[in-house]
Amino acid sequence: MKSQVRGGTRWKRFAVVMVPSVAATAAIGVGLAQGALAASFSISGQEFKVKADSLVGNDFVQYGSVASGKDLHGKPFAEPVGVSGFSEAWITNMCQSVVTPDVPFIGNVSLELRAGTEKNKPVYAKDIYLDVSSLKADAEFGNIDIGVAAGSLPKSEGKPGIQPGTKANPYGFSQRAETAKLTNVEQKAWATTAGTFKLSNLSLKLHKGTKECFTE
After folding, report:
1. Which of 114, 75, 141 is nearest to 203 (CA)?
2. Distance, CA of 95 to chain centre
3. Which residues, in sequence order, are bridge partners of residue 78?
């Protein structure tokens, strides 16, 4: 794997936070599977896990921000995240999971969502932003520009910049690339916003106990 940086630097492994993910209930999942649905969602102050064989995206941008809200007990929280945006992205063999702990009379309950599992039918996302806390992957970038100020990422001609309403320092670190490809992805995220999500071959299940897409 390789990525190109202006000036001739080559990065063989560059683990950046940039894999789109979807936090869904059954009703949301059915709507997304039918396509052409705007989506903006998080999971009540919980991180969720996403695993995928690959992600291919266009017009990548990334900058630092803060995810905030209330947790499962109604207490305010604030966590540092990397906000990543794409004009379009395609994800193959995606698995997402979130565990809700200590449900009365049941214990832990796990939500497992899978999509894009059929050959030549990946998950598709348009105008997507995501708040991610950690990522493991192999990555390749085309025409990457690292270290630009976040304020120099205006949204124009359908390309993502700083997401409206995002808490971001305009003078802070950011990066952008024309293309990006990640493989063997394992990610933890807080939230996702997208203009359109289309989940082919959607499967959503609830499990008693703890069942996650990957373990750390």
Report:
1. 114
2. 12
3. 68
- How far apart CA 216 and CA 206 sit, in angstroms, is 21
Q: Which of 82, 87, 85 is nearest to 167 (CA)?
A: 82
Over the stretch 149-203, which tens digit does the pLDDT of each residue have?
887 776 666 778 877 777 778 778 889 999 999 999 999 998 888 888 888 999 9
Helices (H), 68-134: none
Tokens 């949301």 — which residue?
28
C-alpha 134, offset from chain centre: 10
**In the structure encoding, which two tokens stand for residue 126, read together?**
């348009």
How far is C-alpha 6 from the geometric centre of its chain's CA atoms?
26
Give kind and range of the element (H or E) at residue 27. helix 26-33
Phi-psi region of 184 (alpha: psi -120 to 50; beta: other; left: phi over 0): left
The overall pTM is greater than 0.85: no
What's the helix, strand, coil split of the chain in %, to 5?
Answer: 5, 60, 35
Phi–psi pair at 117, nearest 5 degrees: -90, -15
